Amino acid sequence: MSDGTALRGLSESGRVAAPGEGIGLDELGLAARNHGVLLEALRHDVTPPGLHYLLTHYDVPFLDPDEWRLTLRGAVRTPRTLTLADLQARPAVTQRVTLECAGNGRARLEPRPVSQPWLVEAVGTAEWTGTPLAPLLGEAGIGPAAVDVVFTGADHGVERGVEQDYARGLPVAEALREDVVLAWAMNGAPLPPQHGFPVRLVVPGWYGMAHVKWLTAIEVLQRSFDGYQNAVAYRLAGEDPDDPGEPVTRIRPRALVVPPGFPDFLSRSRVVRPGRCLLEGRAWSGRAPVVQVEVSTDGGTTWDAADLEPADPRHPYAWRRFTYGWDATPGSYELCARASDAEGGQPLEQPWNRQGMANNLVQRIGVVVTEVGG
Ligand SMILES: Nc1nc2c(c(=O)[nH]1)N[C@H]1C(S)=C(S)[C@@H](COP(=O)(O)O)O[C@H]1N2
Ligand SMILES: [Mo]
């Protein structure tokens, strides 16, 4: 990691938009590279290939799987270097995990932190196949003094003047969880290039930034990792520039409705025919099981419980389907849904933070109910 003055002039990342300032071309460029799930694809239990949201800070690296190596180093008794075949010869597990970008909801914050301008769609659920990390760390011998495990990707770039490989530290207790895996397959096929080929980390329950793609190194530290993505990015910091803020960790609860009826092309407001309308959607939380989903058809004034499908013990970190029968009569409506877990629910007004992280504000969908021909 180097900090060059010349690099600092490349962009004004870390900026907060002026009051009323619209989405700029830089943000449009990011939004055109990184895409969200199409909300109608929330109908699938497992998000089909290509529909899963995508977030890549720098460039997608072009890696040759035969040349690829993963080094395990740092505070371990036996450092080692693994090939893809070495990893794939180990015991494999498949788990269904919902991933959500910590920046989801950022574009709704006022003032808007200038970055990838997600609304609500930075989410997806995949079946990840890989080998558990804990036994590998155990074999390498990590000892009781380990604090953080740092995962480094093959991608390289500059952020706020800091040149870096994408790297994230994870507390050792999390890294040793039995469901943390080094994954080489997504939905039964090799990882697509954009999702981390040939190998990525999967940390069920954590926001997306922890799931390091294009892994090249795993390093055990006997201190906290102070790299950019932990110390500067992915914090819940307020307006005071000296406030480092709390680290972003697990996914907060969220419910999203599949927009009903059919859309207006530009605004994506919905048109629904009068009569019985079965609303459906998905709800998830990475910190505790979702206990309740509620739906509002009047913009959040009154709420009604939705039917939430029972938790499936095989998939504790996958989203769950909910449904709600709505008797739609002609008029204009604002649909909302909100999920709660044991720690709380989604806010109707989102507390602001400087980087626009973990904004799980309730979704709002404008609907006009009208007869055929309107
Ligand atoms: N190496 C690397 N890993 C990365 C990223 C990245 O830019 N580089 N982005 C992270 C972020 S911010 C998110 S939200 C998830 C997105 O995973 P996906 O693109 O497979 O949906 O990957 C994470 N892992
Ligand atoms: Mo992210």
Structure in words:
The mean pLDDT is 96. A hairpin with a 2-residue loop joins strand 8 and strand 9. The protein has two domains: 212 residues, Sulfite Oxidase, Chain A, domain 2; 116 residues, Immunoglobulin-like (Sandwich), CATH 2.60.40.650. With 374 residues, it is mainly beta. The structure holds ligand MTE and molybdenum atom.
Q: Summary?
A:
By secondary structure, this protein is mainly beta. The chain has helices at residues 5-8, 25-33, 84-88, 133-140, 172-175, 228-231, and strands spanning 2-3, 70-74, 80-82, 93-100, 123-132, 148-159, 162-171, 181-186, 189-190, 200-202, 215-221, 235-236, 246-247, 254-257, 262-263, 270-272, 275-284, 290-296, 304-305, 307-308, 320-328, 331-341, 344-345, 363-369.
